[in-house]
Amino acid sequence: MNVLLAGIDGYIGWTLMHHLKNRGHSIVGMDNFLRRRMVEEVGSDSIIPIADIRGRMQTMMKSNVPFYRFDTSDDTNYYMLKRIFRKYKFDCIVNLAQQPSAPYSMIDIHHANFTQRNNIQGLMNILWAMHEELPKSHCLTLGTMGEYETPNMPIPEGFFEIEFEGMKDILHFPRLGHSFYHLSKTHSTHNAFYACKVWDIFSTDVHQGVTYGTRIEDINDNPDLKTRFDVDECFGTMINRACACAIIGHPILVYGIGEQTRGYIALRDSIQCLTLAMEKPPTDEDSIRGYRVLNQFDESYSCNQLAETVQKVASEKFGLETEIKHIENPRVEKEVHYFNPHHEKLYKMGFRPTKTLKEELEVMFEDLIPCRDRIFKYRHKLLPTVNWRNLMRPKIVLYTRYQ
Known about the structure:
By secondary structure, the protein is of the alpha/beta class. The chain has helices spanning 11-22, 34-41, 53-62, 78-88, 102-105, 109-133, 180-199, 238-248, 267-279, 303-318, 345-348, 357-368, 372-377, and strands spanning 2-6, 26-31, 67-69, 92-95, 138-144, 159-164, 167-172, 202-208, 210-212, 252-255, 261-266, 291-296, 299-302, 324-327.
């Protein structure tokens, strides 16, 4: 297949490129290196050292991956985007070119507006270019399970049948969102569905759970092939931060009472799922008017369960002793809630998880312990500073046993 990877320099994009190349697909890369700039803006860096921009571009050139330094959300780039579509005639456009952080979108009005513009307009430009140039292509957009929030009922994969006043219909399951980032994804969801209805194009929204991990099988110890790993409050997941804390003897931080539950998936399994979704485009059986939703995660865990599992693996396998510390929750979210999302479609398509949470954590510790000095350098970024209500945060003073 001819595939456009928009957001190829990111955590998932870089690993997906190597995996797809090894499967024989032809890849074209596109990125404006936004993730690097955003992480630098919040005062952090990838804990696992990765190649600089020039190094990444050289790696793509050696891998015969044409690359465009390009911002898909910029209206002035639209006609260039159309020319690229005409030139390569993509079978699938994988849209990873997004601002992916909820805390980043809640910093202030400027970050909220930027998130909305970047995420919504980026997908809109892709959909219009598909309509005008490649109407038989397939757009695969990485979304988030956070669109659904945590309703007090099971969550279907995108749509559900509802009866009201004696009448029935199949409708979008309500999207409520946890942040302005999640709301940008909700708007994009509706834009994609509408585009499929009026233009007869094909689109898949992958509502992905929290992704964790440091590697996939396709990437060896070559530093130019490694993907990034962030631990700051904006771009590091709770698992990332918990592992970083354990490695330097910092208390593992849990927001609030720690009963917030989410779906999680390892990086290697995320790549497996995205590949399945790409190679098996929507059909009449699993989509509505060419629009498909896939809930992509393996298992669900509460923050307490994750913290305790990280603490146990760190102690039993690596002799790293750390405590768990609950702090005030900077987010506005239900801390005790029902959580039961459906996620059967990808399993029916052939998805099979490859490692347990504990097994994946062991791999993460093996990769991260050699980066202990970098974690220690950015240890202050483990603490939350972005508050959903925009209130002044009390100063949190914590200690570390690593010197």
